[in-house]
Amino acid sequence: MKHDSKLSAVLHALLHMADHGGAMTSETLAKCMDTNPVVVRRTMAGLREAGFVRSGKGHGGGWEIARPLDTITLRDVHEALGAPRILAIGVHLEHPQCLVEQAVNRALSPAFAEAEALLVSQLGAVTLAQLAQDFSAHAQAHRAAHHKEQSHG
After folding, report:
1. In the chain, what are the domain boundaries?
2. Is residue 61 within 8 Å of residue 46, measured between CB atoms?
3. How far apart are CA 46 and CA 77, in angstroms?
4. CB contact set of 112 (below 8 Å; sequence gap of 6+)
5. Dihedral sign for Cα atoms in the order 94, 97, 103, 105
6. Residue 76 neighbours by CB distance under 10 Å
């Protein structure tokens, strides 16, 4: 089963946008997200409606972050993407009159709902600023290690 990686891909693109510091075209973002520009435009439209990004047309145009990163949580982005189901597993609904199926669903449904609520809550506790800071720290360490290798090599 293929995982839904849209949230991860969009967060990836948003961090590239934040690091870039200016407008990025749909074509450039498509490379970051490993998709095509039409999918980027469709995806970014939901983020634009939520006020997280803005777009400009013409030369020098493209997508850019519209709000401070510390005001946008991962949950906000998840919701702007239409709040897709987080858990791929669910209950069986083929035979709703079956008492066995009903018993199984009564046992599983609350657990699934609780797990999903916990995950969504955790997404609300992390901002894009925190992700950007994590990326920046690791990028700086990576550059320092690479520079050290170059000077000793």
Report:
1. 6-152
2. no
3. 9
4. 87, 89, 90, 91
5. positive
6. 19
The pLDDT tens digits along the chain (153 residues) read 567 788 998 999 999 999 998 899 999 999 888 899 999 999 999 999 999 999 988 777 899 999 999 999 999 999 999 988 888 788 888 888 999 999 999 999 999 999 999 999 999 999 999 999 999 998 888 788 877 777 765
> Out of 1.40.20.10, 1.10.10.10, 3.40.50.10050, 3.30.70.20, which CATH number does the structure's domain 6-152 have?
1.10.10.10
Structure tokens at 137: 């720290």
Residue 53's H or E segment, with its range, is strand 53-56
Residue 138's closest CA among 38, 26, 19, 32? 19
Q: What is the pTM (predicted TM-score) of this model?
A: 0.81
How many H-runs (helices) and E-runs (strands) does the chain carry?
A: 6, 2
The length of the chain is 153
